[in-house]
Every structure is written in structure tokens, then in C-alpha cells.
Amino acid sequence: MVRYYEEKTTFNFAWEQVALAFWQKYPNPHSNHVLTEDTVQREVRDGKLYSKRLLSKTNRVPKWGERFYNAKSVKIVEESVCDPREQMLVTYTRNIAFTKIMSVTEKVVYCSSKDTPGSTVAHRSAWIDSQVFGFSRAISAFGLERFKKNCSKMSTGFNWVLHTLFPNPAHQDLHLLHPATKAQKIKEAARTASDHMKAQAEHIYQVYSVKN
């Protein structure tokens, strides 16, 4: 049985700021479950930035779930399209291992708020499914509840990153840039964030290993 979940989160930052900060979400104090991040594809086509990243995250499960799998981490594929002209960033993520046990597919659309100028709305949708005979309902329900809790952590962590990068949003002039320039700046931010994440990945992994 597929479980569906959606929510909307408003960030009090301009879309350009959110798009730049997206590539620097990790590491942050609220998302230490993210172990590594590697960019496997990135290119600008028709003014849009297309990216594909591979992330590794911790994968703790309750005792009853260890009978199905007990891997300490799980690989996640994240694909995204960033369109500075339309001010829209769309991301798609999915796990690529243990999909028969539990698959989680997520879509997030970041766009400028129509109700609150200068803010950005993130519309998140998720589909959680399990194909384990006799346990699919229980596993899907567990996955849904864990996803809801993680959404809160993700939003808190992203807000922390935004406030760190843009302590004074009123002085940011990214909205005045030409769309092509925006795309280049976002690409540069993505490349810088990727290098930073790789430098931090080993430290995070070591900390996680010590705790476990």
C-alpha cells in the first residue's frame, strides 16, 4: 500500500537565496545523518541547471525491522532542475537500495511565494511503499512517520543554513541579476558546496562510526 504525504514550508528568504543555499544544506547541526555527497552530473542547458547527486545517509531501523535489513546507510539519488528565469527549483530524490523493502520517492518544488513577497515556498510530496508480503502496511506506516519527523529536521536545518549565509537578507541584490548570470552563480555555488561537502564527509563519517 502506497502512502502519500505532502506539506508546504515557507522560508523567509528570496528564491535566489534559497536556490543558492540549496547546494550548501549539508553539513548542518540538524542533518548529521547525511554522511557523503557526490555530484555525478551537472550542466547548464537553455539557462537551466541540471544536476544529479548521490548521497549517503544513515539508515537506523527499529529492532523489528532488522529482520528485513540492517544496513547502516542507504544511497539516495537526487536529481534537480533549477530555472532562474521562472524562479523554480524542482528536486526529485529516491533510494536506490532495498527498494522492495521500502521505497521513498520525494519531489520538492521551490518557488517564490505569491502571498508573501521576498519569501519562498517549498511544496514537498512523497510516496512511501513496501513490497514485503504480510508486512507492507506496517513498513509503509513506519516509513511515513519517520519521513514526517525528518521533514521537520530538514526545514530547521535549511533555515539554519539560510540564516548563516544571509544574516541580512534585505541587503541581498541577487534578484537584480540577469537570469543567465543567476544560473552561473548558482552553478558556482553548487560546485563550491560539493567540494566543501567532500571535505567534511570523512569527518562526519568518523563521528558517526564512533557513536555506533
Automatic annotation (TrEMBL):
Residue ranges of every copy of the PRELI/MSF1 domain listed in the record: 2-170
PROSITE patterns: PRELI_MSF1
Pfam families found in the cross-reference section: PRELI
Regions annotated as coiled coil: none
GO cellular component: mitochondrial intermembrane space
Protein name (Swiss-Prot/TrEMBL): PRELI/MSF1 domain-containing protein
Origin organism lineage: Eukaryota, Metazoa, Ecdysozoa, Arthropoda, Hexapoda
